[in-house]
Design goal:
The structure holds two protein chains of two kinds. By secondary structure, chain A is α+β, with helices and mostly antiparallel strands. Chain A folds into two domains: about 170 residues, 3-Layer(bba) Sandwich (FAD/NAD(P)-binding domain); about 140 residues, 2-Layer Sandwich (D-Amino Acid Oxidase, Chain A, domain 2), CATH 3.30.9. In chain A, the strands form three sheets. In chain A, strands 1, 2, 9, 10, 11, 12, 18 and 19 form an eight-stranded mixed sheet that branches. In chain A, strands 6-7-5-14-15-16-13-17 form an eight-stranded mixed sheet, sandwiched between helices. In chain A, helix 1 packs parallel to helix 5, helix 1 crosses helix 8 and helix 2 packs across helix 8. The longest helix of chain A has 21 residues. By secondary structure, chain B is mainly beta. Chain B has a single domain, classed as 2-Layer Sandwich (Folate-binding fold). Chain B contains one helix and six strands, in the order βββαβββ. The chains are: A alpha+beta, B mainly beta. Chains A and B meet through loops of A and strand 3 and helix 1 of B.
Chain lengths: ~400, ~80
Amino acid sequence: MNEFVETTITLEWHAPKRSYDVVIIGGGGHGLATAYYLATRHGITNVALIEANYIGSGNSGRNTTIIRSNYGIPESVRFYQHSVDLYAGLGEETGCEIMHAAKGLLWLAHTEMGMRAERSRALMNQACGANTVVITPSEAKELCPQLDLSGGGRYPVMGGSYHPGGATARHDRVVWAYAQGAMRRGVDVLPHLPVTGLLRDGAGRVVGVRTANGPISAGTVLSAVGGNVTGLAAMADLRLPIRTHPLQALVTNHYAQGFAPIVASSELLCYVSQTPRGEMLMGAEFDSQPSYSMGSSFEFLQSVSTKVIHLLPFLRDLRVLRQWAGICDISPDYSPIMGVTGVDGFLITTGWGTWGFKAIPAGGEAMAELIATGSTPPLIAAFGLERFAADHAMADQGSAGTR
Amino acid sequence: MLWITCPICGERPVSEFRFGGELPHVPDSISDEAARNLDYVWMQNNVRGVSTERWFHAAGCRRWLTLRRDTVTDTVVAS
């Protein structure tokens, strides 16, 4: 860790007021980024961010920190590419060391069908401004010498795609950077304050929130919660197409030899990278049944280990240090749901499934623009909740965690 | 680990089953027919608590069953 210069982060806590222009529910990356961009891009600082636990206690502190834009549909590629660009400059913009590291992402294919998917992904990405190229097995071996190209005899590497823009950043530091930037400009961040209800006026408009410490009125309320969004939306009589599934991950002990890129496999549904501490970090698809339980399972440990050891045999000699789970809001088309809800005064950013961390800057920036200007930015126009009624789902299975 | 009692095969580990989704339930408060259809097709109750679900015994008798499961503890309540 010593190669990173420690920067002091000061969080200026304020006493809550009774009324704000904007109240954001959920103190994860998306909520804090929205507050930050409201303050910095639009000069709106009469904002409260309410969090039931401590900031970054949900999925913002549980994800595998991968940043990339090699998605499968044009709207997603453009959106995530913008997020990748914002991440690259975030440390400088906020003055916080977020430990951003460009690593390159290797996406392996093990069948001819998989290669076809990677070719189409590369072409789609290039057409939409993201850099992804098709590579051969020997190029893959050059990028990641630890790879077993025979895939343990079961999953031979036929090639894949390479996304040089793939990066990681320290998730807690991203949360703190946005929190500090927002709080220094006057945003009130109120942790340990559960929201117990929404205030509605006679016409049904959402005009504030009820909390354990009394009501807080607001011009606009944004739900940026993860894991409990169905219950919160129900307070506004809003129905969502969201299922909440656990997503698990694990790290091993220190691997001293160094492991440069991020390695993922669509067909095996797993991904591996090395943290700045040297731990090998890996994850796979989300648990098949919805659950609000954050328990870890032996089945996950067994299945992800089996997969990654076929590709990277050195992992068999490492020890598993920690395994954990987060609860993810999965949308039916594996794309986020952002924007207006049809309920006046109530906006939503949800459906962040297994792809929320990489979207924090672009998602926060777009939601801030929507709150400030009242019109949905073109970058997120395709991701509105109304797409389901319009029969225009944005099916994108470009995530390693989704089948 | 979650164990599920299949009416045909008895108690089996969850890995033998495939989750088939919650039983759709459109709230009575939605009266408009198009809105009810939209809700039926897309919306989820995503219950935090006891959820009534369909499961498929994929690696067993390959029959469907209905299960009541607590989504907070991930345990079966009654089948």
